[in-house]
Amino acid sequence: MPPKGRKHCRSLLPDVLSYLPDNISDVILMHLPCKDAVKTSILSKKWRYHWCRLTELKLDEFLWKTKKDILNPTVKFTKIIYQLLTLHEGPITKFTLNVAHLESCPEIDNFICFLSRNDIQHLVLHLPLGKMYKLPSALFTCSQLRHLNLHNCSIHHPSAFQGFNKLISLELCGVTISSEVLESLISHCPLLEQLVLDIAENSNTVEINAPMLSSFNFSGNISSICLKNVPCLVKASLECDYIKAEDLDFAKVFESCSALEYLLFNLFNSGYSGRLRYEGR
């Protein structure tokens, strides 16, 4: 194409983008990383704040990390969160926060409160190791939650917690939570279908009361788990360290697993290593 023609095409591009239907613009933005979605604000006046209506957001180190960083990563992250709180409009149905690499957890209480008022349905929080971040009570008011994934935090739900009535999947890894709170949390999710637990510190027995549960992955002290009410459980994967095989009470662990079709059981310690795999019809 001649230079004159190319220049003419470039001059038309902003106008073409400006007249795209909103649903097409939304699809484009949803397929871009958050950092690139924000950059679309320079395309035209219409696009300047279009990214502010994104219903799905993912924040991780790639959003702000550059070779010329002079701000402390936690400070920079806090500035980004503040901008989101200030500019975002409408619901956020899916939010992923991965700041596991930071030395300490930034202040996110206000942002979780913001999400609780904006119809959050899918929430993923991967927080830094070290001092556990205590989840604010606002998290337990997210009545629309369907998927919840929490890593490296401390969980204490308030006494007034009414449950997550729409939650279908729950993943807790490296969290600090008492047996009583864990048991209560699971039993207050009546539609729960998928459960992943990676918890090493529980010593008291936790009764799993989840009548709709179909898939269960567990890593930790298996003797602390009792599958009390799981009539729909089809698939289970259990991994355990540092326990004597003779101390396991299989009858207690698998108290109500009449529908079980697939079982993967790994047991490791200094004196014994075993793997059991069962597949039913």
TrEMBL record:
SUPFAM superfamilies per the UniProt record, alphabetical: F-box domain, RNI-like
Superkingdom, natural source: Eukaryota
Residues of the signal peptide: none
UniProt-listed InterPro entries: F-box-like_dom_sf, F-box_dom, LRR_dom_sf, LRR_FXL15/At3g58940/PEG3-like
Domain F-box: 14-67
Protein name in the entry: Ubiquitin-protein ligase
Originating species: Solanum tuberosum
